[in-house]
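Quick question, first post here. What does this chain look like in 3D?
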Amino acid sequence: MFLMKTKIKPGALAAAAFVFTPLGAGAGTVATWDFNDSNAGWTTTAGAFVNHEDGITPADASGNRAHDAAHPVAVLTSPAINFSTVDPIDPVIDILWKGGNGNQNNSADPANLAAVTSYNGGNTNNSGQKGLGFRNLSTGAYDFVSYSAQQNGDLETLSYTRDDLVTNGIDTNANYVLDFFTTDDGGWGWTRLNEVNLDANAFAEVEPGPTIFWDFNDEPGGDNGWVVLNG
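> Answer (accepted):
Ran it through. Tokens below.
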């Protein structure tokens, strides 16, 4: 369920999924997903989210901004991405956060989506986390989880180069989705995702369709050399 406090024009959510402008992006990236007044084409996988100020944040069971209060575990999932052809030098992804430290207790990263959604029976507590998990679509594992490191309401931008991602466990030949998740509440338990900006070549390629070897039409030669043996 995705809850909005701002009315969106028809078609705006779909259009927001792939918007490329230079605003808000760092060197090497383009503004890709801006959560100012929509979910920017991401999918709610667990719990619920609501737009607040200049970003998106988890909602409580009543559909209101959860802030530091307990709420159902929430996961918001991006379209598929791939880092195989991104720039080798400049940053290829920027993550813009506001809120509390994403891993206040220095806990181990969740292994996969199931570890997040089943956390504490599907409800947050004050020992949880909030981060952005890079979920490998081949293995289902979180090969890397990025957390906000600050403990205030200021905007924080985390930028990673391709080498940074590889060092942190990313397979550049694999397809990924990004899971914005929260299992945390309590003091500085709130978080807000403002933007995610990518290298323009970071989107996963669509799998090619089947190759047609024989097209049996009514034109001369339309049997493609096949021979009738019976009938």
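The chain has one domain: 2-198.
The longest helix spans residues 162-167.
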